[in-house]
Amino acid sequence: MRENILVTGGTGxxxxxxxxxxxxxxxxxxxxxxxxxxxxxxxxTGAGLGPALDGAGTVVHLASDxxxxxxxxxxxxxxxTAAPAGTYLVYVSIVGVDRHPLPYYRRKYExxxxxxxxxxxxxxxxxxxxxxxxxxxLETLAKAPVLFVPAGTSLQPVEIEEVAERLxxxxxxxxxxxxxxxxxxxxxxxxxxxxxxxxxxxxRRPVVPLLLPGRVAAAFRRGAHLAPDxxxxxxxxxxxxxxxxxxxxxxxxxx
Length: 255
Ligand SMILES: NC(=O)c1ccc[n+]([C@@H]2O[C@H](COP(=O)([O-])OP(=O)(O)OC[C@H]3O[C@@H](n4cnc5c(N)ncnc54)[C@H](OP(=O)(O)O)[C@@H]3O)[C@@H](O)[C@H]2O)c1
Known about the structure:
Residues 9-132 form the NAD(P)-binding domain. By secondary structure, the chain is α/β, with parallel strands linked by helices. It is 38% helix and 15% strand. It contains nine helices and ten strands. α1 (13-24) links the parallel β1 and β2. The longest helix has 14 residues, at 69-82. The N and C termini lie far apart (43 Å). NADP nicotinamide-adenine-dinucleotide phosphate (NAP) binds next to α1, α3 and β4.
């Protein structure tokens, strides 16, 4: 176990849970952020990395920007180059990045290989899509009078707190290379998730599957992003939506 932990992306949706759990376990972490806190830095330029890494024995690397390739690929390269020899790196990735053409996933895969080739001790955990991301997608799609979903596509969403829990365990343990994927407890069609969302939030919309063209949509239909052998998460999407919207699992108001 290495004292002094730096969490990149510690201000993000996942990172906040990781930082809270590390603190609760007696390991208050420093957080690298572009705008907040004492460790201001930017992976796109390398600014602030040196001071943030100073004396850090472990880096939990969660920072990512799907809209900016330089954050994930060049940013990870900058991080591993700036990290002193022996720094333990824990990297979070996404299930299926090695077999999926989505450009963001390709970049996550490249970042994985940068971590693997860095010469630093490392652990890489791949997780499936988080419940909150799926909910956000459905909230956006439900703004239209008809809720269109990608046909033939399933997801295996996982509870973000469980991903954080696993990452903390890994960060406080020994470097383990690529560890088993962490997938949500069930694989559910996009349409099924949409119906759950509508039911639990009291909305009414027709759910209409649309066959989307292209390699990326085909990869999602093929299930390249799923971890059927690792349905290890416990919380379901229905649990998550019910907790978020104050309704119980069967759609009635929670008391
Ligand atoms: N969302 C999912 O379904 C999912 C599934 C599997 C794996 N993951 C992975 O989990 C990680 C966290 O995802 P998330 O959903 O929690 O992300 P998020 O909420 O979007 O947070 C992104 C974080 O990255 C930081 N960041 C972005 N660009 C940066 C830069 N140039 N320099 C320094 N920090 C930067 C942001 O910090 P500031 O804004 O404070 O600078 C923020 O803390 C990502 O690596 C993602 O690939 C996500």
